[in-house]
Amino acid sequence: MLTLNDRRAIVTGSTSGIGAAMAAALAKAGCAVMMNGFGGADDIEQARAALAAETGGDIRYHAADMRDPTAIVGLIDAANEAFGGVDILLNNAGIQHVAPIEDFPVDQWNDILAVNLSASFHTIRQVLPAMRERGWGRIINTASVQGLIGSVDKAAYVAAKHGLVGLTKVVALEAAGSGVTCNAICPGSTQTPLVQAQIERYAQQQGVDLETAAQERLAAKQPSQTSVRTEDIGALAVFLCCDAAEQITGTSLPIDGGWTAQ
Ligand code: NAD
């Protein structure tokens, strides 16, 4: 197993799905982790305490709303205060809304751009200088296959994820040679609450049960016809953080069962 002993990480949107798996993978590899995301206070505390007990690591939580630049300053300050610095930043918080562009609610557009794109600008601009100074850092942005190709009814999400892929390249170039890398991970369909809402919408539209809906959606897009496992995305993040990955930067890595090979 790869180890990242004593590295200090922030994982945004880690109270659920892919982010929770990334936080667990980093904690198991030896990192202190600052979790973030929405959810019930008791559930979040239970998850935090369970991960701390399982790994013996320093696991914290900060409730910053990633739509709010001021709250994001608070998140970074809290991590710096708790850990004495941030070595690994995983920008993962994300939301989705599905509608044709002419019906796309303006507030949904604004929220999706804020959480899925602008939040990463706000976190990166605050952690990069100290990473550069220390000569080591890892920034990983959870983009999507939708950061590489388009899909109908996902104007805001596709625009934000394409933007995140572009931001990843710029940060990689600006950090090149400093020991800091910046990459995007581009998952295909992964069974999480974010996708479950789309499966339910499809099932309703097509008049099929949820299992059929999940299978038909995969069959249409993901050649492996199998959902990506969240823990495999966590393992990819850990690999990108290890020293063997120091020359991997500016990339957008699909983990998508062949979706983008078509
Ligand atoms: P999820 O709904 O399970 O998790 C999303 C996380 O983001 C949660 O912890 C949630 O609380 C948090 N979040 C949402 N809005 C927030 C806000 N304003 N402030 C702070 N936290 C907020 O979804 P997921 O599928 O695990 O998604 C994680 C990331 O992976 C997202 O960026 C998503 O776009 C991306 N992604 C998901 C899939 C998939 O198939 N599930 C595929 C490609 C990319």
Distance between the termini: 33 Å
- Helix/strand order: EHEHEHEHEHEHHHE
CATH class: Alpha Beta
Regions with little confidence, pLDDT below 50 for 5+ residues: none
Radius of gyration: 18 Å
Identify the CATH homologous superfamily. Answer: NAD(P)-binding Rossmann-like Domain
Bound molecules: nicotinamide-adenine-dinucleotide
Can you count the beta strands?
Answer: 7
Helix content bin? 40-55%
Number of domains: 1
CATH fold title: Rossmann fold
General description of the model:
With 262 residues, the protein is an alpha/beta fold. The chain has a single domain (8-188, 228-255), classed as Rossmann fold (3-Layer(aba) Sandwich). It has helices at residues 17-28, 41-55, 69-83, 106-134, 155-175, 193-206, 210-221, 230-241, and strands at 8-11, 32-36, 59-62, 88-91, 137-142, 180-187, 252-255. Strands 3-2-1-4-5-6-7 form a 7-stranded parallel β-sheet, sandwiched between helices. Helix 4 links the parallel strand 4 and strand 5 (137-142). Helix 4 (106-134) runs parallel beside helix 5 (155-175). The chain is globular, with a radius of gyration of 18 Å. The mean pLDDT is 97. The structure holds nicotinamide-adenine-dinucleotide. The site of nicotinamide-adenine-dinucleotide has 29 residues, from helix 1, helix 4 and helix 6.
Please describe the structure with a list of short key phrases separated by commas or semicolons.
Rossmann fold; alpha/beta; seven-stranded parallel beta sheet; 262 residues; binds nicotinamide-adenine-dinucleotide; 50% helix; 8 helices
